[in-house]
Write a structure and sequence with these properties.
single chain; 407 residues; mainly alpha; Rossmann fold; two-stranded antiparallel sheet
Length: 407
Amino acid sequence: MGGGHKIVKRWLAGGLAIISLMATMSAAAQLPPEGRPAPSQPARAQSRSMVVSQYGIVATSQVVASQAGAAILAKGGSAVDAAIAANAALGVIEPMMNGIGGDLFAIVYDAKTKQVYGLNASGWTPAGLSLEALKKRKIDKLRVIDQVTVPGTVAGWDAMAKRWGKLPLAQSLAPAIALAEDGFGIPENDALNWKNTGMPFAGDPAFAKAFLPGGQAPAVGDLVRNPDMAASLRRIAQNGRDGFYKGPTADAMLALQRKLGTSFHFWQPEHTLDTLNDRALELLEAVDLRQHAALSAVELSYGRKRALEIATTLAMEPRLMLLDEPTQGMGLEDVDRIKQLIKKVAADRTVLMVEHNMSVVASLADTITVLARGATLAEGPYAEVSKNPAVIEAYMGSANVELKGAH
């Protein structure tokens, strides 16, 4: 069987308990309403024994995928490493349900920090797809290929492995690569799903070569190999996310998009997007985020996320900018940073802002106009307007209190 068989034997050997929670499938136990007794549980004699383990548990729809995750735990991997291994294995065994061509969503509980994190690794709209592009070409209905977003699964693996992984991504992907190379048996449900979802694409030679051995959906018990999938996974194992979003795999996706239609191309290769790097850095510099260019948006503080939103607006070079409560929910440090940023961007354009924090308004505006039900209550500098009885009553409900703080 060669090296692949040895890989299978390695990751199956010593598989401890069985484990994980997957991106594309989830289950939740429903709790009874407060005060109502919980429904009785079915007798344990009529079901399988529960899994009890001090080493971790991996649960998926396929035993072999669960084994893949458990083997990673046995090698010292984290729960996230195991989840990636199981997810990748499912993508090989159940390509109609999961895969590197799709998206990934995850909820991760970090026991050390006792924090819960959510990851949305759903794909972005293709770089060339915009309302203007559609109108220009008089397109009112997208082809199937143009409805496909840029696959986000591999980016999700990369982000999770870097944040919570203990093992190299290559090690977590080894079980899936071995399954794709050496083959896996087809169970009943997958045989049915493969037939129902795969045969409609039997006329596509590339699809049939990868997923319909002999031009037919595999039957129960058939041993299926997918060397092309193994090659794609190996490139990811060797080069991380760049093994998917750059190089042969990315080129193949772009070629498919062009093959299926020559009138317009929404997906653009990496090298054409590189020309935007300098402009992106200029925009980050404009909002004082240049030093954070290597971070993902999720890693930025709330205030810096708002600054990033302003940067994306600046990319359109607007003469008028509307800001809706730009400092809401921020700490004092972020509030001060955003105030200074608004002053900076307002130097070259008109800024319309909805803001309820009067101290913020006072620091930004030379003249304040207070309106109530279409009528002007007062107009002038903050020091004057904030003492106007009509303004105080409108804000505080009474003219006998002082207007101050976050109003």
